[in-house]
Amino acid sequence: MARGKRAMIMIGGLVGLIGLTLYPIVISPMIDVSEYKEIQKVTRKNINQEEIQPGNMKVWSDPFGRKKADVD
C-alpha cells in the first residue's frame, strides 16, 4: 500500500512540476496578451506594411472583425 501511495505522489509531483514549468511559457501569454501587443507596437513602429507586403497581396486583416459596410 505504501508503494502505491508513494508512486502516486511522485507522479502527481511530476505532473505538477510540468504544469508549473509550462504556465509562464504557454498559459500566461494566452491569458494576458497586452505585454506582447506593446512589444509589437514598439518593434513595428517604423514599418509600413503596404511597402513590404510580398506579391502585391492585400495586407492581412482580422477575419472575425466587422466589415465597414456592416457598421451602421
Summarize this structure briefly.
It comes from Danaus plexippus plexippus. The protein is mainly alpha-helical.
Molecular structure report:
The protein has 72 residues and is an all-alpha fold. It has a domain at 1-44. Helices cover 61% and strands 0% of the residues. It contains 3 helices and no strands. The radius of gyration is 23 Å and the shape is elongated. The chain starts with a helix and ends in a 20-residue tail after the last helix. The mean pLDDT is 83.
Notable characteristics:
elongated, 61% helix, mainly alpha, 72 residues
Low-confidence stretches: none
Task: Report the β-strand fraction as a percent range.
Answer: under 5%
Largest sheet: none
Shape: elongated
Distance between the termini: 69 Å
Average of the residue pLDDT scores: 83
- Based on CA atoms alone, the radius of gyration comes out at 23 Å
Which structural class do the helices and strands define? mainly alpha
The number of distinct β-strands equals 0
Series of H and E elements: HHH
Helix tally equals: 3
> Residue share in helices?
55-70%
Topology (elements, then pairings):
Layout: H1 2-31, H2 34-43, H3 49-52
